[in-house]
Amino acid sequence: MSNTYKQAGVDKEEGYQTVSKIKDVVAATHNENVLNGLGSFGAFYQLSGYKNPVLVSGTDGVGTKLRIALDSKIYNTVGIDCFAMCANDILCHGAKPLFFLDYLACGKLDSDIAAEIVGGIARACKETGTALIGGETAEMPGMYQIGDYDVAGFCVGVVERDEIIDGTKIQVGQKIVALPSSGFHSNGFSLIRKIFRDFNEEFEGKPLYETLLVPTKLYQNDIFKIKDAGIEMTGIAHITGGGLIENVPRILSQGLTAVIDKSRINVPTVMQELAKRGNIAEDEMFGTFNMGVGMVVIVEEKDAEKITSLIDNSSIIGEITEGNQGIILK
């Protein structure tokens, strides 16, 4: 009897089923700039309407948050996380996401699960006007356990060269405005999983996994609402792994320090519970999790209050001062 690819653990038919199940939601994200559909070796996207465009790209994954999703059999949110982690990064430079590609790897492909994951990506793309123009599904028996999936993505956006936000215009006296997170987003889950052992336990009236799996907030609407209001953002930081402590200094030039008042930050109750239950020091919490701040924007003092009136639950949490400490939490 001859050997087959299916006997080795790779079911091509399940892959074809996956494509069939996702093609409509993927096509719904396309616009007039997408020049071809699924099935080509490469995806075509034409640029139009820009004078001096600069492409900005970012790539990321979901990390071990996937473990909670897989164990809870909730597959329709992690795709949003995957998109958001990439798109929010390029937003920090003022770039509008244009198109997205995804990578899904597993030990044994289940087309229903794959379709739910990609469906989440497609929903996030649709919400932000981003085209999902390609991707790869890799079935790799022996590399992943049956039932395990990994998800990553790649986002490309565009910004006019003279509108790039890179932190070089940040100056002493400018204010730091926090845009709220939707929860843990997609960072710190190795520590979360060490402390919270039972994802089915009740927390604030519902299973804990529901709180942990709330997807990463998409900040595109907030950032462009601020921009459309005529407010110049001199710096934007996406608060991902490393929290405020590591991410805010990334946008500061030498000689500048961000001074942040912790009392102005509304820390989510689930993060407070994690710190209490795990006996986690405050510095460790602020250096690992977003602590309720998903993104910060730096603006002139005169514009800070305008943002708080534009963006729900945003708040002024600090200012830029002289110094080389990078960040001071007080």
TrEMBL record:
Keywords: ATP-binding, Cytoplasm, Ligase, Nucleotide-binding, Purine biosynthesis. GO terms for biological process: 'de novo' IMP biosynthetic process; adenine biosynthetic process. It catalyses: 2-formamido-N(1)-(5-O-phospho-beta-D-ribosyl)acetamidine + ATP = 5-amino-1-(5-phospho-beta-D-ribosyl)imidazole + ADP + phosphate + H(+). It is found in: Cytoplasm. InterPro entries: PurM-like_C_dom, PurM-like_C_sf, PurM-like_N, PurM-like_N_sf, PurM_cligase. GO terms for molecular function: ATP binding; phosphoribosylamine-glycine ligase activity; phosphoribosylformylglycinamidine cyclo-ligase activity. It is an enzyme of class 6 (ligase). Pathway: Purine metabolism; IMP biosynthesis via de novo pathway; 5-amino-1-(5-phospho-D-ribosyl)imidazole from N(2)-formyl-N(1)-(5-phospho-D-ribosyl)glycinamide: step 2/2. The keyword Repeat does not apply. It comes from the Bacteria. GO terms for cellular component: cytosol. Residues 54-159 form the PurM-like N-terminal domain. Residues 171-326 form the PurM-like C-terminal domain. Its EC number is 6.3.3.1. Its main location: cytoplasm. Belongs to the AIR synthase family. HAMAP family: AIRS (MF_00741). NCBIfam families: purM. This is Phosphoribosylformylglycinamidine cyclo-ligase. It comes from Weeksella virosa (strain ATCC 43766 / DSM 16922 / JCM 21250 / CCUG 30538 / CDC 9751 / IAM 14551 / NBRC 16016 / NCTC 11634 / CL345/78).
